[in-house]
Amino acid sequence: MDSISADEARNLALAAQGFGRARPSAVTGENLLATLRTMAVVQLDSVNVVLRSHYLPFFARLGAYDRAALDSILNDRSLAFEQWGHQASVMPLEHFPLLRHRWEQHVHWNRALEHLDAEHPGLVDNVLDQVRGRGSLTISEIEGRGERQGPWWGYGPGKIALEAHFRRGALAVSRAANFSRVYQLAARVFDPALLSRPVMEAPEAHREMLRIAARAHGIGTARDLADYFRLKLTEARPRLAELVDDGTLETVAVEGWTEPAYVPSGPSAPPPVHARALLSPFDPVVWDRARTERLFGFRYRIEVYTPQAKRVHGYYVMPFLLGNQLVGRVDLKANRQARVLEVFGSYAEEGHVPESFAPDLAAELKHLSTWLGLDSVRVRDRGDLAPALARGDPVISAKRASGGAGYTAAGFFCSIIASSSSLSRSRTVS
């Protein structure tokens, strides 16, 4: 078994995810589709603090692009489809055959339909008949859908029926402008030739999923690769052994890792990666928190569902990737009413000097702000990076603001905001 350094492992992982290459001067539909295929799985999430999460991985790799163009690709059922891959996900259409065995063996949703049919006789068939007869429908357009059972995922009976039909493959979904699911019969949106193919047996599908996961992750333990498409480790291990035996994958030892890693066979020493990006909490580079810590020494927990008093870094925290390291993190919100990208907290990772990367972070924040259609970036003084952001960019003329506790950034579109004991009492210093 060959050995590689932790630095080489990071280069492999980031290069496989499309980092380390120059962003195009103008992003085309071909760039977007190629990036989708590089990642293989794009996780969806409803939180819209900065932007819907699925848009952000494309921005991280490509820079500014037309979100309408991405919507068009992700909703085009000749190019992509939504299903449960790594959680709720959009995937390239070529992965469609890999998931079909799951739909016919979806024990949880089969049982859900049984319970639903017992409690609401006729509803399961009626919901499907409504979509069949009336065409594309959202949950709000379903007659007799019933009431929600609670907040968040407290689905009502009609929604449970729609989701069960979707997860069992009878329905397909696209996204409305407000991100709600639009349900349609799968037979009406997918190529009949695709649906008529024999269903792939689970072992064959799992083997291909793991091959794709290894290509997309670049390097990973058995648990890492299994997690990419949410396979059970017991399902993954024998298939990984087969992929090693047939020469598709190789095993390597990574400096500091306690388990062997798998890499695609072939050249295993990519050039150093020089990336600069803000990463969504659901980006494939960081969605597996244990792998993120092992790869980057970066302990990451999303705190969206953590009570405010218990949050360490903030509500919606995005890691900052520079070179092949995660050097800091920022708690962001797109304040659309004020047309400002709010940076509620900014933090350097241990071992990384804020002044050494503050100019790159300031530039990336401005790039993100402009792409979001905002006018400025506003950085509060929580964390150790706010002063460095003011001092660290060559176009910033930073000075201590007279009579205030903050900083001013003249000539740059970033204003440092003083924060006293309450953010609500913060004021802009100019």
Total beta strand runs: 17
Determine the number of helices (DSSP H or I, runs of at least 4 residues): 16
What is the molecular shape? globular
Low-pLDDT runs of 5+ residues are 392-413, 416-430
> What's the main sheet like?
7 strands, mixed
Would you mind describing this structure in some detail?
Helix content is about 35%, strand content about 20%. It has about 425 residues and is an alpha+beta fold. The strands form five sheets. It has a seven-stranded mixed β-sheet. Helix 5 packs across helix 11 (about 200-215), helix 11 packs across helix 12 and helix 11 (about 200-215) crosses helix 13. The longest helix is centred in the C-terminal third of the chain and has 18 residues, at about 355-370.
What distinguishing features does this structure have?
16 helices, alpha+beta, single chain, 7-stranded mixed β-sheet, 430 residues
Summary, kept brief:
This protein has 16 helices and 17 strands. The protein is α+β, with helices and mostly antiparallel strands.
Write the layout of secondary structure elements.
Blueprint: E1 2-4, H1 6-16, H2 29-39, E2 42-43, H3 56-62, H4 67-74, E3 80-85, E4 87-92, H5 96-104, H6 107-119, H7 123-134, H8 157-167, E5 171-175, E6 181-185, H9 186-189, H10 192-195, H11 202-217, H12 222-228, H13 233-245, E7 249-254, E8 261-264, E9 275-278, H14 289-296, E10 317-323, E11 325-335, E12 340-348, H15 354-371, E13 376-380, H16 386-392, E14 397-400, E15 407-410, E16 414-418, E17 427-428
Parallel strand pairs: 1-7, 12-13, 13-16
Antiparallel strand pairs: 2-4, 3-4, 5-6, 7-8, 9-10, 10-11, 11-12, 14-15, 16-17
Helix pairs in contact: 5-11, 6-8, 7-8, 11-12, 11-13, 12-13, 15-16
